[in-house]
Amino acid sequence: MAKISISLPDELVTYIDHKVENRSALIETLLEQWRQQQEDAALAAACSFVDEFELGWGGEWQKAAIIDWEASGS
Known about the structure:
By secondary structure, this protein is mainly alpha-helical. Helices cover about 75% and strands about 0% of the residues.
């Protein structure tokens, strides 16, 4: 695992230390949540693009795919 260093104001470090036991774990969790939000936003934008330009499946194809998926037990 790669290591990085960040600089934070002393007041913020003190505040974090009073709120959590492991500040590194907190920062890692926050960065992971941010990454997930970025991925979700990109996926939403892609879905919007597909809808806007009608690049997705038609209604009949979508219904058939759902029926096949349900029948497969997945």
